[in-house]
Amino acid sequence: MSSRRKAIPADSLLQLRQRLDRLPPKSPERAAQITATALLYGISVTIVYRTLRSFQKPHTAHRRDYGKPRVLPPSELEHLIVN
Q1: Which among 10, 8, 19, 12 has a CA at the least distance from the CA of 46?
Q2: CA of 56: how far to CAs of 6, 17, 59, 65, 82, in Å?
């Protein structure tokens, strides 16, 4: 038996996400779908929930001035005030 963690294929995650999106939030069928997926891939229900939460999560975008100080240096500040 390998020590490598079993992973759910991306297409299966997408199909599961679509099935869950069609169900009401408090539906017991949601838990049944998650449990069936966990049994199919031999992993825990917690791992399925964790994988779904991180699946296709949007990445944060950086501002244009990322990493640069937002406070103007005194020389530029004086130039703006005088003009």
Answers
A1: 8
A2: 19, 11, 9, 26, 50
